[in-house]
Design a protein that fits this description.
This protein is elongated. It is built from 24 helices and six strands. By secondary structure, the protein is of the alpha+beta class. Strand 1 and strand 2 form a beta hairpin.
Length: about 475
């Protein structure tokens, strides 16, 4: 059993003493040089020359087309500093130390994903700061690169505790912050702030953590870069990204079209920077950008963002009301239900899953929305599994309409099993029992996962209303038959 660390102080000591001393040393020396007004070329060269591997990497990167377009060969560190600049050499050294210090120890995917996001954030932040506070780009780059240094260090050096946390975070419905607190005895944010202080990383990182709304241009550049790198993982057309594009435009004084163009260019640059640094395995983790594809996606997205249509909804409710009293066949009832919820209430994917094969499993009887054809053809979920109860059976047994993904239903998250996630993805959804009188028919399911928008209260009210009416229609049908 490896050493267990609990609490902020224990982790800081462990990372400083046994786990990352070489990295911490280089980082501290490089940071010290920034604060010394007249740090000389020679002082920087001396820090790097202590580490032969670091020196050769810095020279290789310094000779890359990204940093040295003139392609005039650079053979010494002092020449590199003269050719590509003191700040660039410092920045390269710090980045290389971070990548090698962590990735060579533990190339686990959490670390790779976070490092890729850190590089992306750093390039985005540096390019924003070029508009609002030129000459501070390098400081902003480093602050954004190290914004999650506590979490990076943990995934790189956490050993068995990192395995333990990874296993906990893989559980459905787990709250990430609580899991981190339980395993580490502190939060990633506290660990970052602790290392920032212990390694003397300058106050920009601490400021960026404490005040996203700060008026300081450096803090805002870092914060914007970090948030763009996170939102990009949801897609360039996500609603979160749209908000950041507006914020970027307002902050830098460019138009929103230009802001998007600059953000995409920075993402491409981040891929180039990562590959220049020899971190090719990080490149594929930075969201890709193909401008034509994005334009297309965006225009399609605007068209495809389904909007509620009250007239259609009222009409469908009325039609179902009539069928409840006068009768209608099952096909028509279900079609009216699906249309009403999709086109009327604006729910992007809706399905009716019924108990089939002598009530042993759920199969899809009808579905509407992008990508639901596959459900109709292939969806299959065993009905009762004592060893793995799930939300479909639960909703039907409890006769309860549920809004999953909101705090009120967090205690039921375990019922959203792996097979259900594989079919339906992650995120909020509505589910309700379909009954014909006391006879169990199946469940009604709806979500807005195509765009990833949050579900709304009015939609839940409509969903419940449709469920009740269809129940009445089905009860009337079963009485007739």
């Amino acid at each position: 059993m490896g050493v267990r660390s609990q609490g902020l102080q224990a982790w800081i000591e462990r990372l400083n003493q046994s786990e990352l001393p070489a990295l911490a040393g280089v980082v501290q020396d490089l940071q010290r040089l920034t604060r010394e007004q007249h740090a000389s070329v020679q002082q920087l060269a001396d820090v790097l020359l202590r580490d032969a591997a670091l020196t050769s990497k810095v020279l290789r990167i310094g000779n890359s087309s990204y940093y040295n377009p003139s392609q005039e060969a650079i053979k010494t560190i002092t020449r590199a500093i003269v050719m590509i600049g003191f700040d660039n050499v410092r920045l390269i050294s710090l980045s290389v130390s971070l990548i090698d210090g962590l990735l060579d120890r533990a190339p686990r995917h959490q670390l790779q994903e976070l490092l890729a996001r850190s590089f992306h954030a750093a390039v985005q932040a540096r390019n924003v700061s070029g508009y609002v506070m030129p000459r501070h780009e390098e400081e902003v780059f480093i602050a954004a690169l190290l914004f999650n240094v506590g979490e990076l260090a943990f995934w790189g050096c956490g050993g068995e505790q990192a395995d333990e946390l990874a296993a906990m975070l893989a559980q459905p419905g787990v709250k990430a912050e609580e899991a981190v607190q339980q395993v580490l005895g502190t939060s990633f944010r506290q660990l970052t702030l602790g290392l920032t202080k212990s390694w003397n990383l300058g106050e920009l990182i601490s400021l960026a953590h404490s005040a996203a709304s700060s008026s300081d241009a450096g803090v805002r550049s870092v914060s914007l870069g970090v948030r763009i790198s996170e939102a990009a993982l949801e897609g360039w057309g996500s609603s979160r990204m749209s908000g950041l594009i507006s914020e970027y435009a307002a902050f830098t004084g460019v138009t929103e079209e230009d802001a998007l163009r600059l953000i995409l260019a920075s993402a491409d640059e981040a891929v180039e920077v990562a590959s220049t640094f020899g971190a090719d395995r990080l490149c594929r983790l930075i969201p890709s950008t193909d401008p034509e594809q994005i334009q297309l996606q965006q225009s399609q997205r605007q068209v495809s963002l389904l909007q509620p249509n009250l007239l259609k909804m009222q009409q469908a409710l009325q039609d179902l009301g009539l069928m409840a009293t006068r009768g209608g066949d099952v096909g028509l009832i279900l079609q009216t239900l699906l249309d009403g919820l999709h086109h009327g209430a604006g729910l992007e994917r809706v399905m009716v899953a019924v108990l089939a094969d002598r009530q042993t499993c759920f199969r899809v009887r009808g579905a509407i929305g992008e990508g639901t054809q596959k459900w109709t053809e292939e969806f299959l979920l065993p009905a009762e599994q004592p060893e793995q109860p799930h939300i479909f059976s639960y909703a039907l047994r409890q006769r309860q309409s549920l809004w999953m993904g909101v705090p009120a239903s967090y205690n039921l998250e375990d019922l959203v099993t792996q097979p259900i996630r594989q079919w339906l993805g992650k995120g909020m959804f509505f589910i309700a029992p379909l009954m014909a009188g006391t006879h169990e028919i199946g469940v009604l399911y709806a979500d807005c996962r195509i765009s990833g928008r949050a579900l709304k209260h009015e939609q839940f009210v409509a969903f419940q209303r449709f469920t009740q009416l269809v129940g009445r229609c089905l009860a009337a049908l079963s009485r007739r038959s």
